[in-house]
Every structure is written in structure tokens, then in C-alpha cells.
Amino acid sequence: xxxxxxxxxxxxxxxxxxxxxxxxxxxxxxxxxxxxxxxxxxxxxxxxxxxxxxxxxxxxxxxxxx
Length: 66
Description:
The protein is 45% helix and 0% strand. It is mainly α.
């Protein structure tokens, strides 16, 4: 059995808390993408992730560039 089955690529070095946040973000973004908006157009992946981040109360650090 593959020990990495069910994990997203790049998540091997995350802490349990970080992995939980990634999972919550992914689930919320997928829900936002699949919600019907009546006009037949859904959110892009980037748009859904951005909205999910806001809705989950997460934000990028102001000094992300270093």
C-alpha cells in the first residue's frame, strides 16, 4: 500500500495543523467551485481558492516576499 495515498503532492513536510488547514481550504474551494450560480458559470480554481481563504479567515502575510 502506498504510504502517500490520499495526500496532496507537496504536503509531506507539513505539520498536522498545516495539513488540516490545507484540507479545509481544499474542501471549501471545491464547494465554492461546484455551487451553481444560475448563469452556468462557476468560479475558476484560483477564484475559488481566494474566496475560500477569505471565508476561512486566512490571509497571506503582508511581507511574503521576504
